[in-house]
């Protein structure tokens, strides 16, 4: 411990100078400053919920007679009164505080009634204090109730010329009523406003049952009740934040999607989160249109009057939910209110929950009611003492008059009355001041009745002070009177469940999309409606502007939120979301798949499988088929998470290539068809589940110059399943699957179509059923036709089929996709 240095004596003045460590002095000075900020400026008192500046404003206005029933006066007058007598700070701090107390979008229950421009929710500043007028609001009178009855302690003001209250009597729980925001030194507070009726119900519950928990109290207090309305989410988060004093609650502005008569949509925002600047929000939304982040927005306007109404007009074809989700994610239309309930308890900052706050409020009210009762008792006893003297005087009025007449002056008369009749000095004075009209019979009766009433009041007050439970009953009764006096509906809606955090996926509309893939590796996502349904035998329409010698190989129809698995000829699998595929119109080329997947230069995609967000059936497996007739079954969850570099799906041998993949159940049948028109049907259960790197087993015995071109799955749920085949020259047919007997896997199969020069080789064989409506056929030269499956005739197994697509010279069918 450092030794104290001896004082230094000044050679010029002789004064003693005490050396002090600058670090120690700074530490002590800053500590004193920080405590002053904490206790005298930034933090509210738990009893009345007010900071010193707000308390002084209300006290000054009360002293000026600016009650709710009074005529308002210039705000500058009020500010001057507060500054000159109670608040030794700048006038801006006082006026800004008073402006906030008058704003119905800042205070749930404004404490000041303002006349003139007191600012707006758009961030507009209030007019200068010389232009505006103010008085106390009706509810603020509840904070000052019984202040004149010595219910709270007073302290000297800053220059010790006047007295100001340390706290207001506050008949309502002000800390939770309007909430507050304050930043002190080393700490801060942020408390949301609540509904008055709900707070009173919770307080009454706590009075009736002091053991009630925070959860019990929150049965009455639904959650925050912001002046701007909005929607607060997740009851669990609200309970936690209210019980502990800390936590975040997600708040969203209310927005409604309205469909107009012309089929276009509007988004109408009718409330915004608390403390959000409306104009800033509108400017932020407008910036998205300028930056082309919201191309679907046609117009934006503010139609707000006394209520909030922001209207967003959307372009034709826009998805309104997608736009609204974008606004929630990227603007303050959704924000989090972070509770940090810190208040002064006996002058010490504490973090409090709702139960502790209401406990402290009840203690405060008990003290106020006790002191008020003692004050009323003292006044009543003094009045009873005088009334008893007056009654006694009336009983001996002739002797008293004689005594007074015999006295030289008032002093002697008072002394004679006190000596002769045993009156107290106060009683004697009251008798001397008594008017002659009191001698009338009715006046005498009034004195007796008043004395009776006062004595009853004294007995009642003494009984009240002697029984704490009766005092609590008085508090409860007064609270219920206030609730009835200020009926008020909740503004903020509470949603019990939590709001799901908005991901990029939430901004994508969930709808059917068509993935189009070419042999050259170009991919795009388009609307399936682009392909109009035509009669069989039609020429079709050009689908996309392919490069020379490029042909479409796959069309996959899936939900935009689905995962898409890309299988390559090397037996690897890659994954991406459907919505990540570049969107394009029917006649556009698309973009190279290598821009999106890490495919090796020598790899080619041979099969594409759309996977729903959840596997369609429990216990399903992935069924893989190669061109050489090898099949493999892998557990379905083996490919739920595919890394960017891909995974091995099957270990290929003898220059084999992977052809297709399907999800299958244990009771399904597999159907394989070859280019030469052979086919086989066998039970999927004949193939056991294998690991990802396994090679598989033989599914069909393929001849030397033949290869598998189609693989389908038959399930028990299918209605009227048929095998649909399409040949290179555009012929096709449907055949009942019952014409194909179930065989053991590994055989050569049976004929499924009569291959001739007229038909050309078999291009596609797929099992279809009644729930499948259409198919899309694309030729090598990119001609596209969309045909109803029902138009394809159902004929025998060994026939050629009929013309499905009319091909130009030198063209041929490239791919078939079932919708």
Structure description:
The protein is an alpha+beta fold. It is built from 17 helices and 44 strands. The strands form 13 sheets. Strands 22, 23, 41, 42 and 44 form a 5-stranded mixed β-sheet that branches. Strands 16-11-10-19 form a 4-stranded mixed β-sheet.
Task: Describe the secondary-structure layout.
Blueprint (H helix, E strand, L loop, with lengths): L7 E2 L6 E2 L4 H21 L9 H12 L9 E2 H11 L5 H12 L9 E4 L17 E4 L4 H4 L9 E3 L6 E3 L8 H5 L1 E4 L4 E4 L4 H13 L5 H4 L13 E3 L1 H10 L1 E7 L2 E5 L5 E5 L8 H13 L6 E6 L7 E5 L5 H11 L3 E7 L1 E4 L2 E4 L2 H42 L1 H10 L3 H12 L3 H8 L8 H26 L1 H18 L7 E3 L16 E7 L3 E5 L6 E2 L6 E2 L9 E8 L3 E6 L3 E6 L13 E2 L12 E7 L9 E6 L3 E6 L11 E2 L9 E7 L4 E6 L3 E6 L13 E2 L9 E7 L7 E6 L3 E6 L13 E2 L10 E7 L5 E6 L3 E6 L13 E2 L9 E6 L1
Parallel strand pairs: 10-19, 22-42
Antiparallel strand pairs: 1-2, 3-5, 4-5, 6-7, 8-9, 10-11, 11-16, 12-13, 13-15, 14-15, 17-18, 20-21, 20-24, 21-27, 23-42, 25-26, 25-28, 26-31, 29-30, 29-32, 30-35, 33-34, 33-36, 34-39, 37-38, 37-40, 38-43, 41-42, 41-44
Helix pairs in contact: 2-3, 7-12, 7-17, 12-15, 12-16, 12-17, 13-14, 14-15, 16-17
List its traits.
single chain, 819 residues, alpha+beta, Topoisomerase II, domain 5, Gyrase A, domain 2, five-stranded mixed sheet, four-stranded mixed sheet, 17 helices, 28% helix, elongated
């Amino acid at each position: 411990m450092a030794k104290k240095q001896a004082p230094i004596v000044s050679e010029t003045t002789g004064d003693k100078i005490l050396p002090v460590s600058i670090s120690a002095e700074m530490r002590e000075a800053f500590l004193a400053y920080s405590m002053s900020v904490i206790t005298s400026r930034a933090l509210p008192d738990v009893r009345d919920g007010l900071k010193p500046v707000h308390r002084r404003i209300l006290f000054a206005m009360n002293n000026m007679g600016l009650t709710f029933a009074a005529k308002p006066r210039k705000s500058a007058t009020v500010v001057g009164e507060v500054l000159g007598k109670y608040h030794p700070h700048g006038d801006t701090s006082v006026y800004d505080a008073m402006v906030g107390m008058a704003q119905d979008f800042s205070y749930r229950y404004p404490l000041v009634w303002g006349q003139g421009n007191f600012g707006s929710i758009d961030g507009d500043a209030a007019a200068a204090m010389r232009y505006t007028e103010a008085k106390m609001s009706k509810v603020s009178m509840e904070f000052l109730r019984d202040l004149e009855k010595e219910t709270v302690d007073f302290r000297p003001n800053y220059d010790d010329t006047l007295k100001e209250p340390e706290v207001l009597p506050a008949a309502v729980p002000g800390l939770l009523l309007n909430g507050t925001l304050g930043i002190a030194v080393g700490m801060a507070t942020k408390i949301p406003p609540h509904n008055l009726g709900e707070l009173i119900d919770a307080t009454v519950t706590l009075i009736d049952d002091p053991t009630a928990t925070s959860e019990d109290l929150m049965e009455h207090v639904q959650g925050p009740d912001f002046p701007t309305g909005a929607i607060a989410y997740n009851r669990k988060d609200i309970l936690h934040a209210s019980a502990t004093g800390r936590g975040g609650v997600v708040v969203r502005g209310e927005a409604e999607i309205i469909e107009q008569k012309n089929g276009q949509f509007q988004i109408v925002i009718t409330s915004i989160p608390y403390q959000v600047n409306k104009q800033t929000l509108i400017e932020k939304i407008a910036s998205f249109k300028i930056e082309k982040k919201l191309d679907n927005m046609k117009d934006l306007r503010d139609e707000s009057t006394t209520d909030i109404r922001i209207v967003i007009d959307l372009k034709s074809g826009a998805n309104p939910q997608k736009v609204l989700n974008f606004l929630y994610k990227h603007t303050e239309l959704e924000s989090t209110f972070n509770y940090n309930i810190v208040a002064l308890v006996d002058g010490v900052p504490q973090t409090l929950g709702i139960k502790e706050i209401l406990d402290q409020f009840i203690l405060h009210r008990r003290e106020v009611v006790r002191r008020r009762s003692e004050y009323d008792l003292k006044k009543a006893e003094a009045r009873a003492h005088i009334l008893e003297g007056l009654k006694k005087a009336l009983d001996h009025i002739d002797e008293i008059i004689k005594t007074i007449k015999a006295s030289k002056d008032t002093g002697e008369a008072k002394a004679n009355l006190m000596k002769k009749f045993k009156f107290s000095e106060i009683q004697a004075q009251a008798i001397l001041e008594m008017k002659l009209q009191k001698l009338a019979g009715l006046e005498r009766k009034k004195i007796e009745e008043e004395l009776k009433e006062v004595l009853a009041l004294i007995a009642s007050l003494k009984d009240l002070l002697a029984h704490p439970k009766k005092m609590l009953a008085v508090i409860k009764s007064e609270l219920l009177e206030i609730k009835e006096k200020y009926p008020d509906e909740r503004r903020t809606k509470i949603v019990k469940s939590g709001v799901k955090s908005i991901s990029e996926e939430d901004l994508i509309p969930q709808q059917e999309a068509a993935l189009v893939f070419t042999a050259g590796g170009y991919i795009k996502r388009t609307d399936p409606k682009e392909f109009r349904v035509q009669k069989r035998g039609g020429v079709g329409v050009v689908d996309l502007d392919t490069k020379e010698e490029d042909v479409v190989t796959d069309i996959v129809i899936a939900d935009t939120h689905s995962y898409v698995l890309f299988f390559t000829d090397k037996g690897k699998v890659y994954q991406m979301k459907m919505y990540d595929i570049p969107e394009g119109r029917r006649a556009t080329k698309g973009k190279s798949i290598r821009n999106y997947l890490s495919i090796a230069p020598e790899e080619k995609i041979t099969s594409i499988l759309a996977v729903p967000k959840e596997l369609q059936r429990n216990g399903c497996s992935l069924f893989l088929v190669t061109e050489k007739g090898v099949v493999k079954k892998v557990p379905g969850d083996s490919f739920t998470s595919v890394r960017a570099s891909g995974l091995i799906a099957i270990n290929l041998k003898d220059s084999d290539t992977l052809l297709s993949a399907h999800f299958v159940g244990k009771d399904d049948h597999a159907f394989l068809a070859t280019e030469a028109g052979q086919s086989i049907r066998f039970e999927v259960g004949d193939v056991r589940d294998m690991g990802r790197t396994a090679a598989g087993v033989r599914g069909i015995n393929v001849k030397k110059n033949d290869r598998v071109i189609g693989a389908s799955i038959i399930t028990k749920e299918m209605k009227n399943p048929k095998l649909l085949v399409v040949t290179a020259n555009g012929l096709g047919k449907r055949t009942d699957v019952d014409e194909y007997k179930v065989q053991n896997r590994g055989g050569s199969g049976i004929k499924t179509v009569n291959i001739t020069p007229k038909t050309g080789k078999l291009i596609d064989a797929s099992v279809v059923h009644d729930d499948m409506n259409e198919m899309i056929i694309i030729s090598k030269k990119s001609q596209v036709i969309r045909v109803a499956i029902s138009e394809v005739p159902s004929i025998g197994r060994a026939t050629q089929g009929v013309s499905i697509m009319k091909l130009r010279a030198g063209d041929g069918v490239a791919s078939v996709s079932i919708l």
